[in-house]
Amino acid sequence: NNKGGASASRVQCLKGSLSCSSFNLQTMDASEFCFPEAFNSSCKKKVSLHSVNTLIYFGLSFMSLVTTALNLLVIISISHFRKLHTPTNFLLLSLAVSDFLVGLFMFFQIMVINGCWVLGDVLCVLYYVFSGVLTSASVGTMVLISLDRYLAICDPLRYSTKVTTKRVQICVSLCWICSVVYILVLLRDNFQQPGKFNSCSGECVVEIGFVENVADLILTFIISITVLVVLYVRVFVVALSQVQAMRSHIVAVKQKHPSKTNVKKSELKAAGILGVVVVAFVFCICPYYCVTLIGKSSLLNTSTMTFLLCLFYFNSCLNPLIYAFFYPWFRKAMRIIFTLEVLRSGSSGANIL
């Protein structure tokens, strides 16, 4: 019956007027538009295989869940246990907050995987503001982590007096405040009339001036990555020389200054672990930044851009995995949290180091 009805409809349309044909054409094409009721001004959806969309949906959803869960564990661990209230760990806390918000931010990316933005022009601008703030805060925190390790390894005698918990908290707060102000200035033209750069309904586009784009490229990418690389090259050069000195004089150092030897080893280990974090960050962020900031994204297909974006997001999921693999205190903290021992009175004073 359905087949017969469809055939009759087609025959009727062929025999009928032009408006009948136009109506059926609009009905057939309605599913291709973001807003079928206003298809004349609506953007078209991205055309891709259903299996590809399903894989992307599943991958981003799983990555979002893992990223938020693991980084939430890092936030709870460092915030709850007093033994972890060190300057270096407060920097890791700032990075975990940024990565946790990136995990939540992935849900917005899942919503626009078909190329349609349905949340309105104001939220579109806020989407870019939120994304920019998280990126800038992550880059700034990475620079602070590198500077922290540089001072710990290259100037260990004055490290404890230079790098205090209060100073680190001030630096982290300034990092986030500056990130917000920086992005608001960068996108200031888009707040006057949100959506004015959209070519069709369902598009989410912001425009940044040439000068601002060049400044963002230099400040957020070139200078930051250069500082990260230079500081950590210096850190590992000094660390290698210290390791060689410790190996050649290990007996004498242990007899005269056993506690100092332990501190040296712990600082070197921390530098190595955070070096892995920095290298992973550079590896994940560089491909995406090189494509988007240079302005060559139009030369790549959707699948490649999706991969670069997923690689960019994967870094936020990777950081807590690095902590779990290298930091015994993180594994112990997770055990205490999962067994609900964290709810007991006095658990914040537990020695998990």
TrEMBL record:
Q: Does the keyword Ribosomal protein apply?
A: no
Family, according to the entry, reads as follows: Belongs to the G-protein coupled receptor 1 family.
What residue intervals traverse the membrane? 55-78, 90-113, 125-147, 168-187, 217-240, 270-294, 306-330
GO molecular function: any one?
A: trace-amine receptor activity
> Boundaries of each G-protein coupled receptors family 1 profile domain copy?
70-323
Q: Which InterPro entries is this protein grouped with?
A: GPCR_Rhodpsn (IPR000276), GPCR_Rhodpsn_7TM (IPR017452), TAAR (IPR050569)
Subcellular location as annotated: Cell membrane
Print the organism lineage: Eukaryota, Metazoa, Chordata, Craniata, Vertebrata
Gene Ontology CC entries for this record? plasma membrane
Superkingdom per UniProt: Eukaryota
Its keywords, alphabetically, are: Cell membrane, G-protein coupled receptor, Membrane, Receptor, Transducer, Transmembrane, Transmembrane helix
Q: How does it sit in the membrane?
A: Multi-pass membrane protein
Can you say what this protein is called? G-protein coupled receptors family 1 profile domain-containing protein
The keyword Transmembrane helix is annotated on this UniProt entry: yes
